[in-house]
Amino acid sequence: MRIQDLPGEPVIWVLIASELLVFAAAATAMAAVRLTDPAGFAAAQSQLHGWMAALNTAILVTSGFCAALAERACRRGDRRRARMTLALAALGGVGFLAVKIAEYAADLRAGLGLETHPFFTFYYLITGFHAAHVLFGIGVLALVAIRLRAEEVQAGAAFWHMVDLVWVLILPPVYLLG
């Protein structure tokens, strides 16, 4: 498949591919460092709040579904439904960030900072970088909801799906592999 054959503008696919590569590199680096201290990584990881990660997964997957519904509604010409589902997708992003902030606050209160253990350095860097993408994605969803052009909604939804995909890809090394 050639990049020209993908739906939408090629530049969004270049952006998505480059972002996926950055997160893959971070997860690979984390895995490599984990090999030097598997017991320490497992002990550090066990201090995380898995239920918050599960809640955030449900929020992002639901939000991604709303973005897909928005794209479909926009293609059908249903501007009201497209705006409503884009707003719901963005609201999911806000919910995700609220849970992530609460999680970080609990971690920091427990004395788990960037320098506590190499695991936490990766944890904060990877999940913080992802949170920045969520924040940016909320802005993208808001902008495409205002303009509501089908190709822009498609690009915004594609970016938002990348944000979802990244979360699903970083979830195992950060929260599940022990």
TrEMBL record:
Membrane topology note: Multi-pass membrane protein
GO terms, biological process: aerobic electron transport chain
Keywords in alphabetical order: Membrane, Transmembrane, Transmembrane helix
SUPFAM superfamilies according to UniProt: Cytochrome c oxidase subunit III-like (SSF81452)
GO MF annotations in UniProt: cytochrome-c oxidase activity
Protein's cellular compartments: Cell membrane; Membrane
Domain Heme-copper oxidase subunit III family profile: 12-178
Transmembrane portions of the chain: 12-36, 48-70, 82-102, 122-146, 158-177
One Pfam family this sequence matches: COX3
Subcellular location, principal: membrane
InterPro entries: Cyt_c/ubiquinol_Oxase_su3, Cyt_c_oxidase-like_su3, Cyt_c_oxidase_su3-like_sf, Cyt_c_oxidase_su3_a-hlx
GO cellular component: plasma membrane
Family: Belongs to the cytochrome c oxidase subunit 3 family.
Protein's name in the database: Heme-copper oxidase subunit III family profile domain-containing protein
Gene from which the chain derives: norE
